[in-house]
Input
Amino acid sequence: MSLTFAVVIPVGSDVSDIDRLQRLVRSIMSNEPRVRWIVLVDDCPRNRRLERRIDIVPRCDVVSVENPRRGGGLGYYGGLFTGVMHGLNWIWHHTDAAYSLKLDTDSLIIRPFSEVIEDTLVSNPEIGQVGVIGRTCNRADPTFGCESSETSPLTEMARRWEHLLNAVGGNIDLIEMSKAENHIDWYSSFSHVYALIRGAESRGYDHLSYCQGGAYALSRTMLSRLAEYGCFDEALRWSNIPVGEDVIMGMHTTYAGMRLCDMSRDGDPFGLHWKGLPFSPPVILTKEYSIIHSIKNDPNYSETELYSFFRSAGRRV
Output
């Protein structure tokens, strides 16, 4: 079909995030001719005009938007989700992208991938999100599948909220008064996101089911439903929620009436691990992954060594 797609990249405030961003964008443009839009979500309290911090990108529109949290909330948790949703909202309103690919700056593209993602989403319209389900694609790793039977922390928070409401006779103001005493900042916004969690639970959400946050793709239908159900309008409400961005997005997939799909076996696009790489660089090439994560904090290789290896192996990074 050769449809075009969009990329959304949240960018942290550290200088190293800019360096990684530049390398990531080069790897995208070198490997994927179908990318048409790149949305950079700036998490710095001041506007850095990130579109000016990368090389000129042919055939592609690059825009920078500011994370609405503006330094508030929890940057690596709900605050990150707020920024990602802001970028996706921009894509929904300004593009006709067939799907949207979310990438962290410590991911890297080492071969083309768009056709297989596009075919999967077109052939399976009930799929809203594809990536690596859980922490890692490495099926021999002790953390593989370790969370599949765990209750979602969002479900646990919903039960805690219900208990608090019952304890104060449904008076939310009394909960607000107690949040400072209990050092819990998420009370003030939870009354708004609670309805979304309950909506997901009514569609079967319970266990910890999510696509690893280093990289995942969302279908056009998924974005359509997020817009229709008002999820983009509520995105800022999540900024204080102490739950990972990827877990919150997984819950939204169920809320939208769609399902997750794992695409992390040999030859699939996503070769991700929650910390460092899932395999050694030579094994990653053998397994023919396209999108890898994370080049940061790998216990055996520095970032410079990883870039050098994939370049010397003929990868366009």
About this structure: The longest strand covers residues 35-42. The CA atoms of residues 23 and 121 lie 28 Å apart.
